[in-house]
Sequence to fold (247 residues):
Amino acid sequence: MKVEHMPNLGVRYWCALILASIFGANTGDFLSDVLGLGHLAGLPVLAALLGLVFLLERHDRKPHHAYFWAAIIVIRSAATNIGDMGHDLHLSPWVAAMTLASVLILTLLVWAGVHRAKDPGQPGPGSLSAMPLYWWAMLVAGALGTVLGDFCSYDLGLGNLGAALALGALLVCLFAWGRNGRLAALGLYWLTVVVIRSAGTAAGDLLAHGVFGLPLSTLVSGLAFVALLNTWRAPAEGLASGSTETA
Fold:
């Protein structure tokens, strides 16, 4: 993905990612439950949509972030269904979480190694954000967040509201710890993404099953996400440029 299509790593980015996580949790469940595709059959559809996003992005030179956020939503939707496959396979949430965490750690080790070969500086999230490895890591982090969100809600007995509040509090701590640019560090960045995905899973389930119902929750979370992107404008500069918004 071109630099001019990548958003800055700042407050707007994180707020949009939080809403994208809730929306993506709802869209993933909408595909599997409302449209009846299940957790597996919808993945080829989402893969085709993602391919279309990248194809259109390749031929567009206008500076905007629409393709980035479209890819984020598609990948988050797929990650929701991949994470939920553990229930279909009767996997222990511990096994599913440890497996996905191991894959994510291995991905980040590869990321750091590739970065060192290109640039001896710090391998932050912007260094390879336009590369396929970024999107793979986002998929794995989203699936891991889905498993952890469900674990907190159901296995720990916190319920969707309790899990959303607890994970939201953890997220606030991470933001406080990572201010002044520290969230650009590779490990802290992806830990924050996993927590956002976990909290988004609990919040999405809360809206879908405790407030609106899944179809209306999908619509409401989607409108909130689009409204944020369209009302909170940001310069069309990329993560890969190394620039950040003021926190």
